[in-house]
Amino acid sequence: MRYFLKAGGAVAVVGLMMAGCSSIGPGSSPAPAPIGASTAPVGGECNAQGAQAAVGKNATAKVVEDARVRSGARLARVLRPGQMITKEFDGQRLNLEVDASGKIIAVRCG
After folding, report:
1. Do the Cβ atoms of 35 and 18 come closer than 8 Å?
2. pTM higher than 0.85, yes or no?
3. Ramachandran class of 50: left when φ > 0, alpha when ψ lies in -120 to 50, beta otherwise
4. Mean pLDDT across 65-80
5. Where is the signal peptide (predicted)?
């Protein structure tokens, strides 16, 4: 138990030390500019019917976000073959199942 506490403390100290090194100085490049605020609705309860048009398309970021907005969901996740997933139901989440090539084969909420 003592070792765990010491190791955890060391990790925290190293993390704090590294945070102090992240300032921008001469010769270093600035952090990338933020992408900007999205105008897409935040979402709420998922309705998979609105996202059915995504079936057959490649699961690109644009397609996934479009499906999320159309379903009214708050968030979306892409489920790949053999991927471990959590099984808890979330009525605000859109699940997009894809095949091995990344093509969406099923759309459901949860």
Report:
1. no
2. no
3. alpha
4. 95
5. 1-19
Q: Is the dihedral of CA 46, 51, 56, 57 positive or negative?
A: negative
Task: Indicate the SS3 state at residue 73.
Answer: strand
Query: pLDDT band at residue 9, thresholds of 50, 70 and 90?
Result: very low
Residue showing tokens 């490049």: 29
pLDDT tens by residue, 48-58: 999 999 999 99
